[in-house]
Give the backbone structure.
Amino acid sequence: MYFWGLVLMILSIPLSKYMMSVSQFALSGILILDHIKMDRVQSLFRKNNGLFAGILLLPFAVIWTIQGITGIFRRFLRKENLPAIVFSSLYLLHLAGLVFTVDFDYALKDLRIKLPLLVLPVILTVSEPLNNKKFRMLMLFFTASVIFGTLVGTWVLLTSEVDNIRDISVFISHIRFSLLISLAIFTLAYFTLRRDEYSRLLRLLFLLLTGWLLAYMVLSASITGLVVLLLALFCMAVYYSLKKKDLYSRIAATALLIVPVIIMLYVLGVVSDVFRLNPVDFSKLENQTASGNYYWHDTTNLQTENGHYVWIYISTDELREAWNNRSSLDFDGHDNKSQLLRFTLIRYLTSKGLRKDAGGVAQLTNDDIALIESGEASVRYHERSGFYIRLYKIIWEVQQYLRTGDPSGHSAMQRIEYWKTSVQIIRNNLLFGVGTGDMNIAFEKQYEIMNSPLKPEYRWRSHNQFFSITVGFGLIGIAWFLFALLYPPLKTRRMNDYFFFSFFVIMMASMISEDTIETQVGVTIFAFFTSLFLFGKREKTPI
């Protein structure tokens, strides 16, 4: 029952938040049943007739359940289980933060979300650890679940109109899903190399599935997932190059180290595309359109699109009339992404090197009109792959932030403002932080104090787990957080366990740009796999 409860859990993590909660209740129930002495139940029914025994069953069941839970925690809190106790103390850290909390409604919600930090270490350390066969079977169930999620995402992409590529992740957040894909890739890679465990045909299947997951990462333009995966690969390559002495390992490590270099060259190419500039002599700009209407030029606004200046050669009235003659969407209205259509049109014409007048609109194809109506602001977004487009948009956001100082609406640059705000809150609450429930209040106040350029709808929290912990619990809290992360694997000597090490790097990398454990899915992923790899399997898997 326990093993199949784990299977239900690991299948649910990529596919169902509801079943993820149900499986934790199921595992808890199985563990409690395992600690109820069945001879007492048998004795109750043996000494009493059926009806009377049924009446007594409920109060006795409550007593036995309490005794079972007491026995579970007595077993959990034993001295030799100190690594698991330290890890689960992350939940106690959030409980301690109630001392400094004003907003108890949010604090209680946060404590409910973080409950896996306490429940899952208890379940996976008190229960019998899995042997290698069952552990590998469990990880195969996990990879199958992730692959099913990617197939559903691909189906959504191929059969639906998707305005935002992130929407193809229909079960959980695309970022959390990308972390699971990264872990599944490492899992399949390990199984592919196990010549003594699996047949050649099965290992070939594992290799093909690894390739599919990598392809899906690119298809879904998951920049966070790809960066995290590359960092994990880089760390694994460094480990191999330092620890392994045989030639094969060193060649494999060198090959892995080359990958980040290739990616960096690709990124630099995209940066060059974004910052490319077609020079214009502002003193020689023409004043009139072919129809005799006047242009207006804003030579103080140096925004560019595909190397062309956006705010020159604009004839608004002429542009309005020409557009309204070709489209059912009003020039002064919104496109299908709820953006002001006139700005989408101006940027799109600029990206094609066209003037913003009737002549420019006349040169647009019907496909161009449809793209503008759908909210695409550059012809580049149509010409290149989804991964290139996502990377191009991020670098374009950097360019606009450097030019205007306003990060609103640009997810990558908003993080800079979140981190600035976090640092200021930390300075004002250095030792103990603002408490478990007061982070939203603290951020709202600090944004007002700083007169942040962020619009109210974009004023979110840290988007960095280390900042989030420090904001909530101060320097004491972040020190304990880091200790609770590092002590368990060091004490159990699992830091060089293949599965734990790859997962640990994935989690640490994700925490740089995300509040990884501030959501139900994120904290469950973190608590479950950490507990499974450290405490839930009997044997260490060498790197």
